[in-house]
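job 3f2a | input accepted
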Amino acid sequence: MASEKAFENTSDRSLDAYLFHQGTHTRAYEYLGCSAIQLENGYSYTFRTWAPGALSISVVGDFCDWHSGLPMTKITDGGIWELVVFSEKSYDGLAYKFRIASPHGIHMKGDPYARASRGGDDGASIITKRSSFPWQDSAWLSARKRTICSKKGRYLPTPINIYELHLASFARREDGGYLSYRELAERLVGYVKALGYTHIEILPITEYPFDASWGYQVGAFFAPTSRFGTPDDFRAFVSAFHRAGIGVILDWVPAHFPKDAWGLFEFDGRPLYEYQGKDRMESRSWGTRFFDVGREEVQSFLISSAMFWLREFHIDGLRVDAVSSMLYLDYDRMPGEWVPNFYGGNLNLEAIAFLKKLNQTVYGEFPDVLMIAEESTAFGRLTHPVSSDGLGFALKWNMGWANDFYDYLSLDPVYRKYHHTALNFPLMYAFGENYVLPISHDEVVHGKRSLIGKISGSYEDKFKQMRTALLLQMTYPGKKLLFMGTEFAQFREWDYDSSLEWFMLEHPNHFAMREYVASLGQFYLQEPALWEQDFVEDGFSWIDPDDRDHNLVSFRRRAIDRKELIVVLSFSGAELRGYKIPVFDRGEYEIVFESLGSGSSLSSPLTDQDGNTALTLDLPPFAGVVIKRKKKAGRKKRSS
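job 3f2a | predicted structure (640 res):
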């Protein structure tokens, strides 16, 4: 094309190159990839990529030739290549790739730092101009600084109730097509707010080629998926939630990536972003490659990706996926397939160092975001500060609690007394880490059944037990997460390829379940005892952890000001009468929340001959209640 020409290397970005190769560049997306400058008489486009094993590289695309393209120049010994192109007209929206020649052949690759991508089987990168999106979330960002902090020595003394969702299957058009980011925001913001959620958490929207991966096999780590619109459409999505006072958390996947030909897989003809050794390179179960997080340039890539979403899209937190697969050398490997570390153990020392570096970098700039670990083992000190030899995450999913609780709910009530530890054992370790109690997407798919589908009993009893189960989740120490569709008790397992079964709301029990979840969510927000002291023992104490014969637990939750709630939860199919609850004074008490809406009764406190004061409670089968000391002016009873 006559109006385009390639410039000689005029790079004066030696500091950027140095930081990138040192593993300390947190804005590598501003150096590598494609950047544009508008000039008086046209546009200057600079393309850079990292490919130390390449013999030659050309940029090919809509603006030149897709076969031979425009040649790049190697500008660092560490393997950064560069091309500067002048054009009289804008390239905005045009597609391109890197044509990489190596001793192993020709490789057509998407730009690892592209801010937009076609994804799919093609994976061409899209040139995008720098965004001038008009953010309207300054009030939210100010509030975030005030609330995501410590108070009187308490960590995160704020309600965190997360609605987890998969954008492609929350709702679809009538023809089965995707809704856009903006359309999804219109449907979701008011819905989520009414249910009492403080945050949404989105399964990965970093561009991914394979729908059935749910987004967890990422192809482009700086590009929101084009399935739902443009990057600015996604900014509008985030901004809409922020204006409503709701945070947005993204699933982010630094552990592994797929083997699609256009992606990071053997980028310059050999392992580059992935480990080189067979003992660490590949996941048997996922068929993906593990990032070599010990390599400095890969550290710059991944940390820059994390910072990109926090800076450019005002994201409020990252849920870091598959942390266990990073921490253990023997993860998903048989004996003899892995090599011990320097000390003879199974821990990946480079990954541990990387995760500490990641969290320190994030919190150095954004002390008010949430870094959340999805980690399925008992690895210690995950949510402790790096300065105290922790990994530095803010929160960790408590997957052990979830799995044990699901197994308990699946039992006939007659046999639950033999498995009562599912109810009381989680409190043995509840304060060792900062936990989220997740009822997540992972547990409602692949034959595991939906939450209501897991529960033993008749149709009607399933709903009763589910209400009490959700009350347990909301009143136990820890922040909360619920996967979409669970709020109205969808029986069908989650299907990534179709909409939730919204028609279920036409059935009274399902509609009532959603109203109950909304009532429970709003109750949670109004009660500081349920969230001010989630991570310290002072916020919780047992009344009776061991009443296995009645499938029952009772406990107290306390706010910082010492005001408390009493919680009693029964998973028995039998009515409970005359249950004694010790109290410390003879004031008036009331039931302020009950899972079944009615049927429970509470007596005034009585003092026996030994001077012990107690309330007396009657509970219907499968019921839970929350009790509170009355204010002098009295308070109306909440019910669902």
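job 3f2a | The first strand starts at residue 5 and ends at 7.
job 3f2a | closed
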